[in-house]
Amino acid sequence: MPLLHHALFDALLPALFALAVLGLTWRRREHAPKSSEPARCIGAWAFGLALIAAQASIYGELVPPWAARQLASKDWLPAFLLAAAGLATLALVPRVRDALPRSGAALVVAGFVVASTRAHWGTDGVLWATIAVFGCAMLTWSTLELASERLRGPSPSLVLALAVAANAGAAYASGATTLARLGAALATLLAATAVIAWRRRVFTLAGGPAAAITLTLTSIWIGSWVFGALPTAALVCSVAALAVPCYAGLGPFSAATPRRRELARYALVALIGGTALYLAWPRGAP
What we know:
Elements: H1 2-26, H2 37-59, H3 73-90, H4 94-99, H5 105-117, H6 126-150, H7 154-173, H8 177-199, H9 208-226, H10 232-243, H11 258-280
């Protein structure tokens, strides 16, 4: 049963691994700020290793950066997930943390985008597409950091899981099936973190987990848009589905009750994510 095999090894087992590690890490933490730095570092490793395991299941291989062939974004992803986790570990040292704000996540994301596309910069339009993807990645990462620091409880993880699922659906509709499976694995992982956020309201995705999420989404965008058939309008909606709901507590929603703001986030991600899926779906398809 291929579908059951994919669901088990692509998503469920990596999510359960991350859930166990994060659950043990956060179970005794009742206060967030600086005391949670080690937990955020462990979160980077939990997310990184879970996503690497999912990728190994999906593609059946892990290609090292020194492989004697041209590497695609999917091939670079494991190395940069490990780099993000490694920098998060080094950032536990105060001097390194001062020199690398936010554990150097912006540098890791920039390096990933460059490594994934530089071999094709001579191709018409790829360089500009690279700049556009980098902008989308920075917007997503900064929004995730802001929302993770400001919002607590299981709802942010569930809203983000829904937005990532919309990105995976858009990738699938554009023909990027394996990238869609990677997105589904990330969405399952995020849904699992909602259990921890429900038990420990100090739990946060800020730091290493936010970088790992951004790297995985960026890999999906590069494969499905820069080198795939995902329409530009669908990409814009896919990114907006991640960013816009984080601001549901501002503007006209600022005076709303917390419950209504949460409902607004779900409604926004469903509306924008559904639009992305509609735009990505090939015309004439059933």
